[in-house]
Every structure is written in C-alpha cells, then in structure tokens.
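User: tokens in, sequence out, please.
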C-alpha cells in the first residue's frame, strides 16, 4: 500500500481490484483500513491515481455487477459503495459479498449502515 496509514489506522483487508470509471475498468488494488477505503490504480491505466473514501462518508456497500460501458450489467463480481452524497463507486473484486460485509462491519457506529 503506497498510501500512508494515519496514526491509529490499521489495514483490515486488501486485494486486487478494478475500479469502474465510466467505460474503463481501472486495474489496481483495493485496501480497507479502520478509517478508509483506498483504491490505488496501476501506473499503466489511462485513468490512474488513488481513490480514497473515508468510512464516515460511506452510506452502504452491497454486492453488485460489473457494467459494460458503465451501463449494462455484465458479470456479478463487483461491490457498489454508496457515499453520503449519493455517489456510487463500483469495484470489481473476488469475493464481492465478503468485501461488502467487511466494509459494512468497518463503518463507524454513528453512521447508519444501509443495505
């Protein structure tokens, strides 16, 4: 993990993943910590960089579908993370149900977890 952990923050889960950005599936790694969900793209992607979602800003995490061209459901191998501002971010991962459950479990107690 290239993103530095904060004081008191620990790594909970990690795996290879793709972040669905518009029509591109950006390859990289997904990390769940005790404070954040972090996606770090591989350097070979057109849309690179790091996506950081604070756990306090996550409303829900649920199993979802990878979507071709960002629209048409293709394969049930993703987790959809909805933020408190209504944005949905999709990650293609192995073990999507386990990822959704781990994210839900990591959410702060004062954040109401939706389905």
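Assistant: Sequence out:
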């Amino acid at each position: 993990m290239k993103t530095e952990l904060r004081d008191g923050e620990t790594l909970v889960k990690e795996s290879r993943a793709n972040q669905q950005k518009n029509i591109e599936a950006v390859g990289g790694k997904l990390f769940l910590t005790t404070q954040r969900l972090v996606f770090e793209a591989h350097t070979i992607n057109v849309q690179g960089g790091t996506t950081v979602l604070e756990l306090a800003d996550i409303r829900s995490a649920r199993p979802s579908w990878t979507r071709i061209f960002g629209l048409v459901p293709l394969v049930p191998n993703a987790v959809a993370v909805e933020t408190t501002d209504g944005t949905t971010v999709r990650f293609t991962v192995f073990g999507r149900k386990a990822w959704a459950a781990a994210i839900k479990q990591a959410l702060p107690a004062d954040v109401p977890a939706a389905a």
